[in-house]
Amino acid sequence: MKGRPPVLDVAVQREAGWPELDWEALAGKAAVAAVTQTPFGELASGPATIEIAVRLTGDDEVRQLNAQYRQKDKSTNVLSFPMIAPDLIESLTQNSDDGEVLLGDIVLAQGVCAAEAADKKVSVENHATHLIVHGVLHLLGYDHLGDAEADAMEAMEVAALQTLGIPDPYLVRED
Asked: Which of 74, 86, 131, 135 could pair covalently with 106 via S-S, beta carbons 3.0-4.6 A apart?
């Protein structure tokens, strides 16, 4: 459809236990903030509709997914399932096709997220926003396996969260 504005479309599926919030808006803002901190910022406004699915679920489902796909039999805060190979992402920004591209899926575990938010003395909303930013960066091929990669990814997360008015989640708080 010519003439339509390009979109970064984020669909959210929320299971029981998650707070009643406008998760579609929160996840959409987090995704745009994350994407625009990368060299792939054009994905947020390019010719194609870039789709991301976010599932807010329970710890048991995340544990099963983590065991199945990462061979780690434990729950974790966020999992990302990219649908585009990292070396092909740059071509998405150069493609003049006005179609739709599924970038990938992000899954958050409610209990882990809530516990981490409580430990950090932040709202579940802000912590989940951070986890969605983190997940989107993984969908774009970023990782934190080595120190240099971790530092670069962390800097992008902090910058993205700053644009959303969320303080640096990596600052050590002394009580």
From this structure: 135
pLDDT digits (tens, 9 = 90+) for 58-78: 999 999 999 999 999 999 999
Neighbours of 151 (CB within 10 A): 11
pLDDT at 97: 57
Q: Are strands 100-109 and 78-82 parallel, antiparallel or unpaired?
A: antiparallel
Specify the pTM. Answer: 0.91
- Give how far Cα 93 sits from Cα of 38, 45, 98, 113, 142, Å: 12, 9, 11, 32, 17
pLDDT at 70: 94
Helix (H, G, I), strand (E, B) or coil at 14: strand
Neighbouring CB atoms inside 10 A of 147's CB total 8
| Burial (Cβ within 10 Å: 0-12, 13-18, ≥19) of residue 105 | buried
Helix (H, G, I), strand (E, B) or coil at 150: helix
